[in-house]
Amino acid sequence: MRISKLTPSKRGQDRWILQLEDGSFLQVGKNQMADFALYDGRELTEEELEDLRRAERHDRFQSYALRVLMDTPMSRKRLVEHLCRKACPEEEAQAIAQRMVDLGVLNEGGYAAEVARQYAARGYGPRRVRDELYRRGVPREHWDAALQEVEDWEEGMDAFLRKRLGGTAPDPKDLKRASDALARRGYGWGEINAALRRYGAEIEEE
């Protein structure tokens, strides 16, 4: 198959539009230009053309992965899911995800720590953070280190109670509702009782 025309793309730098003699088009990058020695009039064998198309698809998927991660940090599992939804084969998606790890663009440990800090600041406890890390596809091996990145769980709890109780002396029903809310947010009862005492509530010892 002969290349009938090769022109720079107006949609991005280091991109070219390749027109084949059958009238079909293919957008290629600088890597394909160099690897396949592309130029006007070059004859491509069927094998070369298939390899070129495969390389172009891989480059496109990899560029997509980079854009996604720069816009929204995520786990490796989530990135692979995004790529597969774009019709990228899973094996290739895994290879691209590993490439993002090698480049330092995908850092699951750092991502897990950031999720833990954000949720703690919003008043959520360790159990809820673990649930969220699981939901986001972060491997368990990163969970403990992420939780250790939270310097002060008490600060988030105290802020939640101040907002929930309005700084007033609560009655037992208010305390019960606040306690249940903190439990749903992932705190243990010992942590909850300690937070209520810091707030100034009287807690009966069992």
TrEMBL record:
Alphabetic keyword roster: Cytoplasm
Pfam entry (one): RecX_HTH2
Residue intervals of the RecX second three-helical domain: 108-147
UniProt subcellular location: Cytoplasm
One GO term (biological process): regulation of DNA repair
InterPro entries: RecX_HTH_2nd, Regulatory_RecX, WH-like_DNA-bd_sf
GO annotation, cellular component aspect: cytoplasm
Keyword Cytoplasm found: yes
Function: Modulates RecA activity.
Family: Belongs to the RecX family.
Protein name (record): Regulatory protein RecX
Species in which this protein is naturally found: Candidatus Intestinimonas pullistercoris
Gene name linked to the record: recX
